Amino acid sequence: MKVKLDFKEIINYLGTKKFWIELIIMTLGMIVTACAVYYFLVPSKLIIGTISGLSIVISGICEKFFGFPLNVSTVILVINAILLILAYILIDKEFGIKTVYTALILGPMIRVLEKWFPYEKFIDPTSEIPSIMGDLWLDLCCFVLLLSLAQAVLFKINASTGGLDILAKIVNKYLHFDIGTSVSVAGWVICCTAFMINPARLVIIGLIGTWINGLVVDYFTASFNRKKKVCIISPEYKRIKEYIVNDISRGVTVYNVEGGYTGEKKVELVALLSTDEFSDLMKYINENEINAFITAGNVSEVYGLWGDKNRIKRKSI
What we know:
About 65% of the residues lie in helices and about 10% in strands.
């Protein structure tokens, strides 16, 4: 009975607007990822700490030592398939359909680029370096920016590009390492494998790129998740509280406070708002000429009962 219920829930979810919006976002994110890998890593053979980088190494080893070329897209597909099988065996249902989808479409997407839009068309034949931008550092910057943006967008909707994310989850579960540490260590190990096909200069560039990639992902993720913690002291706190609860549909914490200088008893409101909601609140206070002392700070991580689902529930009530 439980299996039928689960199957029914899955079918219902596939018919929702949320599913199709997230499917489009995941597809666009993986298209950006495929372009970043194929046009900025493959030509110059820059190895960044990703599964794509490892695939370039394996492809290079096959060509260099065994004399036959192997498409990077094929290697990516095989590695991601193996990691997804390991994830199912070792972690069971921790990885959902989103990870399966994003992990398995990267290889075919790169294959399409190889066949219909080969990077050779965009490289200057007189250039000494096989690079789209004509400079390895510019290629590295373009790759990091595109990949980090795609990763941050996918993390926002609780998805991922697969690859190292899967490996990090396995390491986290059985070795109890922090996920961020697992990804970083695995990335550096992959970069070091590049010594087999690349000179030391390219390997060092790859190590730097891996480190920068982590920083940029954190920046984009923090930007997408940024919220405003707003503290308000006002004699008209009831009006402000009603506006936040009824119009913005967010919760408010009410504190009884005492002024340290005057000793006057006051009420402080503390609310956690999105950037747009904070702008609406400030507009309301200014237009109604409400006397208030307000401080606001950025919050990059929020856990617990905060989010669009809870907001929608409150609005429906």
